[in-house]
From TrEMBL:
Cell cycle in keyword set: no
Spans annotated as Disordered: 1-26
Name of the gene this protein is made from: ZDHHC3
GO MF assignments: protein-cysteine S-palmitoyltransferase activity
An annotated GO cellular component: membrane
Enzyme Commission no: 2.3.1.225
The UniProt record lists the keyword Acyltransferase: yes
Protein name from the UniProt record: Palmitoyltransferase
Domain text: The DHHC domain is required for palmitoyltransferase activity.
Domain of life: Eukaryota
Catalytic function, reaction form: L-cysteinyl-[protein] + hexadecanoyl-CoA = S-hexadecanoyl-L-cysteinyl-[protein] + CoA
Regions crossing the membrane: 42-66, 72-91, 170-195, 215-238, 250-271
Organism: Latimeria chalumnae (Coelacanth)
Start and end residues of each Palmitoyltransferase DHHC domain: 127-246
Length: 292
């Protein structure tokens, strides 16, 4: 039975919150037929962009560097290695995106549920007034997922999901595979440039020399950017697992830096010659501040 010595953060100030008829029903889940999927426009767009960038890297690696190469063994070995890592990266991305990160059941912040916990005298009970649930230790509420997530590390828009207790391993694998294919692509770009400098540019690619150079530079920029970002994230994730901590602060800073350079390059460096309106950037920054 719940005794006066039990404490419940926020419940002490609002005792009526534990009444079943006073607990506001939570909104419906964002899952689709039992499949965990967050219906967030920005997150879905970022996830699609992630896949498109991997597909672009596949296109440049295969049709600009490997297929035109005269070294058959070099093309086969690097093609198998790159495609295997890309497949594992996309598979890990799907698992991280479609796996329940550890959502706490909604609507259990009631007196009956508190009594069923058989709490010890003086034990603290945490509740979330937003999703009307009792939170376990180290659970945090995500404003995007609209759920409390057990051992929540951060919400990642690139996988359109929170990184929590159940899907952190898939996120770690995703960052590792992306870092590996980025490094692999950069190495192949370096060898291809050396090969083209020694040979005739018209013979080292199926495309025209200007098109080849532009595609290789874009791939080099993409690979370098994602190598730095995913390598940092992989390192912080492994460190957080070893120390049993979260990296929300480090992720917040690194994500803002990454997103700044990403959007600056694609929308303000003249690649598409049409900069985004200031209102879009303001909304994007507000979204970042809201998530983290």
């Amino acid at each position: 039975m719940l005794t006066p010595t039990h404490r419940s953060r926020d419940i002490e100030r609002s005792p009526e919150y534990l009444q079943p008829d006073k607990c506001t029903p939570p909104p419906p889940d964002d899952s689709m037929g039992g499949i965990w999927f967050i219906k967030d426009g920005c997150g879905i767009a970022c996830a699609v962009v992630t896949w498109l960038l991997v597909v672009f890297a596949e296109f440049v690696v295969l049709f600009v560097m490997l297929v035109p190469s005269k070294d058959y063994v070099y093309s086969v070995i690097n093609g198998i290695l790159f495609n295997t890592l890309a497949f594992l990266a996309l598979a890990s991305h799907m698992r991280a995106m479609l796996t329940d990160p550890g959502a706490v059941p909604k609507g259990n912040a009631t007196k009956e549920f508190i009594k069923s916990l058989s709490l010890k005298p003086g034990q603290v009970v945490y509740k979330c007034p937003k999703c009307c649930s009792i939170k376990p230790d180290r659970a945090h509420h995500c404003s995007v997922c609209k759920r409390c997530i057990r051992k929540m590390d951060h919400h990642c828009p690139w996988v359109n999901n929170c990184v929590g207790e159940n899907n952190q391993k898939y996120f770690v694998l995703f960052t590792m595979y992306i870092a590996l294919i980025s490094l692999h692509a950069l190495i192949m770009v370096g060898f291809h440039f050396l090969y083209c400098f020694e040979e005739d540019w018209t013979k080292c690619s199926s495309f025209s020399p200007p098109t080849t150079v532009v595609l290789l530079i874009l791939l080099c920029f993409e690979g370098l950017l994602f190598l730095i970002f995913t390598a940092v994230m992989f390192g912080t994730q492994v460190h957080s697992i070893c120390t049993d901590e979260t990296v929300s602060g480090c992720y917040y800073f690194s994500t803002l830096v990454f997103n700044f350079f990403f959007f600056f390059f694609f929308f303000y460096s003249g690649v598409f010659n049409q900069p985004l309106p200031p209102s879009f950037l303001d909304l994007y920054l507000l979204y970042c501040l809201k998530v983290w």
